[in-house]
Write a structure and sequence with these properties.
Radius of gyration: 23 Å
Number of domains: 2
Strand order of the largest sheet: 6-7-10-11-5-12-4-13
Strand content: 15-25%
Helix content: 10-25%
């Protein structure tokens, strides 16, 4: 955004003098795709590479692509190619050329989704390859009772004060629970990945975060060091999964205030209300009272959780987290369990615009 503003400000004096007169053209693509990152190695990286190539063409002042926002049901909210050139003809020609190219290769940019269980299994496979988990420790452990792992309360209480981090190993495997992204309108209280972490008895795992004001208040009132009964998460939507019922050890209490250090929003101050760090069924969970995606680790650090201590970290975010977490994670795994912000476009029921990939072929080709 800074670079874009800089280019606009740099061109403004010449426009005021009349030395430069940009002509714009917008070409709309009749399709909707999932929200994806344009960073290197991500699904939309080839698109961004082409955008930058077109922007360097002679006579082009500015060239960009609006990817749209799949979770907004607006008729004009879709892919839009935006070209500004020294003649109206060049602007139109360039925009239509790019739109036709993108349309031709549209199938390449359909997001593939995996479930919460598949994501946890993939994370465990990575940890085995890294030598941080034994293969025999990757089997699911099914409990008849959600409180089974607190059968020896004193032992769990002692362990909850901390564990020895893995020495000289890569950063955590980060699982992005994209469908529960508060940045797209989700509540941030889904329990799908947390449930799988518990089922597979994953050690040194942390969920950042679960938005549950009721649990946060209850824990804050009880105080650090106490064990309380909780029904964590799963309250904001039927898609979020059932609450995790069990006993939780209260590790920390916070006022919920932190400052972003990520390149995405650096310096921004957030307040997610009363927050607590809980240990539930062997997994650390940062519980907050307001939904906000974690641009960086400061959201979990506010309750005393450091990503360096964990093998697996779960974030509730779609793309913005990558600006900081990419350099920290040993691997990033996107998953898409049921949720308000599902990246499976076929699950979104639009009334004001077509959104399913199967409708593509019923529409005109851009520029035709």
């Amino acid at each position: 955004m800074y670079d874009t503003a800089y280019r606009a400000a740099k061109m403004l004096p010449a426009m005021i003098k009349g030395d430069v007169k940009p002509y714009g053209y917008f070409e709309r693509l009749p399709m909707v795709l999932a929200a994806q990152s344009t960073m290197d190695g991500c699904l939309y990286a080839p698109i961004m590479k082409k955008v930058l190539e077109f922007a360097q063409r002679e006579g082009i002042y500015e060239f960009s692509l609006n990817y749209g926002f799949p979770w907004a049901d607006l008729a004009n909210n879709q892919f839009v190619v935006n070209a500004w050139a020294n003649t109206p003809e060049l602007a139109e020609k360039t925009a239509k050329e790019f739109a036709a190219l993108l349309w031709e290769h549209r199938e390449r940019f359909v997001a593939k989704t995996i479930s919460a269980e598949q994501a946890v299994q993939q994370a465990l496979t990575t940890l085995v390859k890294q030598g941080r988990v034994l293969e025999e420790d990757t089997r699911a452990i099914l409990h008849d009772d959600a409180t089974a792992r607190f059968s020896d309360g004193k032992a769990d209480e002692a362990r909850s004060f901390g564990f020895v981090p893995d020495a000289k190993t890569p950063g955590p495997v980060v699982i992005a629970e994209r469908s529960d992204n508060p940045g797209g309108g989700a509540f941030g209280d889904a329990t799908h990945v947390l449930r799988e972490l518990i089922k597979y008895k994953v050690k040194q795992a942390c969920v950042c975060t679960i938005n549950d004001p009721e649990t946060a208040r209850k824990a804050a009132k009880a105080g650090v060091g106490q064990i309380i009964d909780v029904e964590l998460g799963g309250k904001g939507s039927k898609l979020a999964g059932d609450p995790i019922k069990g006993k939780a050890y209260i590790k920390s209490i916070s006022d919920g205030r932190y400052t972003v250090v990520s390149p995405m929003g650096a310096g921004t101050k957030f307040d997610v209300g009363p927050a607590v760090g809980l240990l539930i069924e062997g997994v650390d969970v940062a519980v907050v009272s307001g939904s906000m995606q974690p641009f960086d680790a400061n959201q979990m650090k506010m309750v005393g959780f450091d990503p360096a201590d964990y093998r697996v970290v779960v974030v509730k975010s779609t793309s913005h987290f990558r600006a900081w977490w990419t350099d920290v994670a040993s691997e990033i795994i996107d998953c898409d369990p049921p949720g308000i912000c599902s990246n499976d476009i076929s699950t979104l029921k639009y009334k004001n615009k077509p959104g399913r990939c199967s409708l593509w072929m019923r529409m005109r080709v851009p520029g035709a």
